[in-house]
């Protein structure tokens, strides 16, 4: 690995993903929109100097600024372009040969009184080959001329970005008779001369002419599609223009999915404090471990040499203290967070863009589903949506979502719509699970609330600190957190209606239904009143949690997308528990849920409903329109799946332990993927082993799953310490947590002030 200069890789190496998507070696390339290009190039002057090939690049470049531009300029003359709204000037200067005229033009910019262009793109050679019939004398003169121009370009490179575009190969079979002397052998000789001479006199690494050699690689793959064998097809020159835009603009615009040419972000104040905290935790744990090991050696049992028996030590080994467990957890977490930072903030590991193909999504899906079937076991209980079944459900859904993310399948609308149902199913389980607990247990204590909130949010809070990301960035955790609080508030507010109370008087059931109707009314109102929603979540401190890029629109959009499904989960739990209480369903091992006739009818309706939704989702043509319908219809497929999974007794009595294992760590898997499986905040793919895509996925996946499992254990251990059952101790811990967030807010304010 040659180092962290991804600009060099962007300009010199890469490969095609499919036919049109260019993947630079080691980094991700951002696709610039015209508004972004204007913002980057505002008040800039860009100059392209060269022949007809450079003119092609010029047109592709200005189309990134204004897509309406037509190629109507003079073929063998200068072509100006200006965008007055952003004060951008881009000029093409016709100098088809590297000669005295080109030298004079470049020399004029080196004079102190003249305004220098901010970007200079130069390249020429094919005309010299053509005019002089490919003679060796022309090549020798080319070397002399470029030797005289090189110091001038290097001088300009001190204050401007200067790029020398190497000559692309030609498709010799398609060349006209007047161009037959332009051979790839001659082009290689001219390129070799340019590379050898440029920068040969420059000792300052910052004042170098950047050699744009990646165009050669692109041309080798696409020149066969050329109209005349000399000029690149439009898609290839557009790729070259996009590379040029990335080289210059990434360090200015800092796009998340454009890791090429971006410097490593500096450590923030909060990150430095976190680093010190984890370092002290590791040191503290090592000191305590050494002390305990030393004590253990002193008190260990001695072997009786005569009898060969062990004598028990007089002093028993002490139990692990709370402090030691705390330091142990933070020690492991510190090492894991270091790995997170190195993967997605330091320029240590490579990142690549996603590229979707049907095979990259459906083959892994088929593989894991078949694998899950091989781990089928009997359930401990045969109730509808028992713990093992819900873990299995979460597990296979999470694996499908992970494959969806790494394969970039969001570009394929039918897959996107089905994944939206899986996300909705998670929220459905949130409504079902929490409603069932509060309804049956009637436990509205602070301990329960704190346990749930801690388990949901601990990892995300740590990542917000270590990775310098807002809370709303990990949108799913805020979503389930808010819905949990809504469920809690709905059931805990007076009058508290629970199953035990409702069994004594059936009227309480209507009271609960009235509460649910009020909840549905509020959801409906907020979903169609963006202003009211934004006012609620714009109050401090909610605004600190739910703002993204300075507003709460993204939060409103995420909340609105699955606004009814938690209510559906609560309603389903209420109906199911009511039927169960009245013994209207049979949940014995191997027994159908209802009578044979009713079970068969419901099973048929469920299968038809499931397939109908899939057909509708697969026929979607417009994402916006389908997203509008999704909140109301997603419950159809969710309920259909539940009935198909639970009506037949033999299906309800088994589960996949493979999927259930992943289901137990599904939340950690969903969050960890952002930084240590995917890259650039989910926009790309982490590359630990370059050049071997399949092996890389295997290695990064193994580490990713192990880390998620370890974090799950750390969260469970810390939950027992941070959220104790004793109310007085819990109150003290809550005050400490409040102090922690107050300090975090204070340092965040200092950090923002220093940035501004």
In short:
The chain contains 29 helices and 13 strands. With 756 residues, the chain is α/β, with parallel strands linked by helices.
Please give a handful of descriptors for the protein shown.
alpha/beta; Rossmann fold; 29 helices; 756 residues; single chain; three-stranded antiparallel sheet; six-stranded mixed sheet
Describe the structure.
This is N-acetylneuraminate (7)9-O-acetyltransferase. Keywords: Acyltransferase, Glycoprotein, Golgi apparatus, Membrane, Transferase, Transmembrane, Transmembrane helix. Belongs to the PC-esterase family. CASD1 subfamily. This protein is an alpha/beta fold and 756 residues long. It folds into 3 domains: 248 residues, Rossmann fold; 375 residues, no CATH class; 30 residues. Helix content is 61%, strand content 7%. The chain has a 6-stranded mixed beta sheet, sandwiched between helices. A 3-stranded antiparallel beta sheet has the order 9-13-12. Strands 1-2 form a two-stranded antiparallel sheet. Helix 7 links the parallel strand 7 and strand 8. The longest helix has 31 residues. The radius of gyration is 33 Å and the shape is elongated. The chain starts with 5 loop residues before the first helix and ends with a helix. About 2% of the residues have low confidence.
